[in-house]
Amino acid sequence: MANVSKAVVTVLGFDRKGIIAKVSHVLFDRGINILDISQTIVDGFFNMVMVVDLSEPTCPFDELQDDLNRLGKAMGLQIRIQKNEIFEAMHQI
Amino acid sequence: MIQTSQILETLRMIDQEKLDVRTITMGISLFNCVCDDTKRLASRVYSRIARQAENLVKVGQEIEREFGVPIVNKRISVTPISLITGAVDDPLPVALALDKAAHETGVDFIGGYSALVQKGMTEADKRLIESIPQALSETELMCSSVNVASTKAGIDMDAVRLCGEAIKQLAQRTKDQDGLGCAKLVIFSNAVEDNPFMAGAFHGPGEGDCAVSVGVSGPGVVKRALETVRGASFDVVAETIKKTAFRITRVGQLVAMEASERLGVPFGIVDLSLAPTPAIGDSVAHILEEMGIERCGTHGSTAALALLNDAVKKGGVMASSHVGGLSGAFIPVSEDIGMIEAAACGALTLDKLEAMTCVCSVGLDMIAVPGDTSAATISAIIADEAAIGMINTKTTAVRVIPAPGKQVGDFVEFGGLLGRAPVIPVHPFSSEAFIARGGRIPAPLNSLKN
Fold this sequence. Notes:
The structure holds two protein chains of two kinds.
Chain A: E1 6-14, H1 19-29, E2 33-42, E3 45-53, H2 61-75, E4 78-83, H3 85-91
Antiparallel strand pairs in A: 1-3, 1-4, 2-3
Helix pairs in contact in A: 1-2
Chain B: H1 4-15, E1 21-28, H2 38-52, H3 56-67, E2 71-78, H4 92-105, E3 109-116, H5 123-137, E4 142-150, E5 154-156, H6 157-173, E6 185-189, E7 210-216, H7 219-227, H8 234-263, E8 267-271, H9 284-290, H10 301-317, H11 337-344, H12 350-356, E9 364-370, H13 375-392, E10 396-403, E11 411-415, E12 419-422, H14 432-436, E13 440-441
Parallel strand pairs in B: 1-2, 2-3, 3-4, 4-6, 7-8, 9-10
Antiparallel strand pairs in B: 1-7, 4-5, 5-13, 6-10, 11-12
């Protein structure tokens, strides 16, 4: 299967300083490379989608997910990481 | 490369439109458990299931977490139990073993306390059907089904009579819970062997040792998609549903392939279904109403459902390598907020529901009828539904609850996915003499169709 090692991190919530820095820091700590970032702010609502490379992670997927969930709670944001295949399945033939 | 808008669309479908995978169901053959000692048979059945399905729930949760899509239920289906209890006197210990195995593996339901009697009943089939009221009232997670008719064999009216009686007894045995036991018993015509949905799931005799199948859902996603084409022609409606069904089914296919690989078990099928829940925004009835029907059940409902059912199949079939099960839109009254509302206000009647079952998946499902409805009337309802399945070469089914002590207008409350339902009337005229005849209604002619 193509791109088995990619995941999508989505961050939704009210804009504040340091969101990208903190999310990137968690990913860096876990040995994860960011492949693509797209970010928009509409009426103060922050919306970020990151595609990351999971081919050389230093921890299991669920630990990374827990780290991001904790960061999301601390910052009042919804942070999710999902494997890329679900988006490919739904939107590509 | 996936676009940001597509990623956000997927998240919206999951968060707001309740896109989920309704079930991962592991089908397990129990033929290798057969023996002539009841205790040993029960113990073999328990061990076989507990071993085979030990990782099912764990793998389901992993997939759920990694892909971020809810998998609402993890379930097990087994070989119809009457097929493995031919050499023992009492199937009940096997029922208890099934329930124990379901608890041990942590699944939500186990199905297959079943008999296939469309042409006739063996002694084991008869014993099993007669044991259903006790078996379902003494177990928690077990579901049962009986196939009483098929297009090739006709309708076994002796079995139909027995099933009507079993439903009445079962309601009585579970009267403290509004007859909840009846929610776990389905009477089929043309039952399929690879259905992942409860209460009618069993692992048919034509299946292999083990297989993993997936049932998808997503009425909310279809409803939302149709909101974007309000007033457009039915050509546009059908296309919109097809595209949406394709996406929903792709998620099901992905989950099924992952589950199959991780469990080391062959992939069975994806069931292309729209399965509602009592939650707001997860209703098949509301899809029909979105098409322009004021209340589900009024004139036009059957046509709307026919379009929906067909478009879901057309859209879904290309998204999966193997499609099977019941595949279509479900209309379980108590499990669909729009159906509940429509039945409560009198728009949706038993007769209209029967008509709607001619064009959609399965049949008269999760319908509460008055507690004093006779066994013969329930058998006659089953016979009518079985006849529709038999003549139209499709699966039909009956899951009715004669709610003890309840009258028309009362509500039964089951909670959870089973929901709540208003008690709706049955015809007051008797079918006693019709059901008392017994015997078989012959298989229909399959040509000269008109």
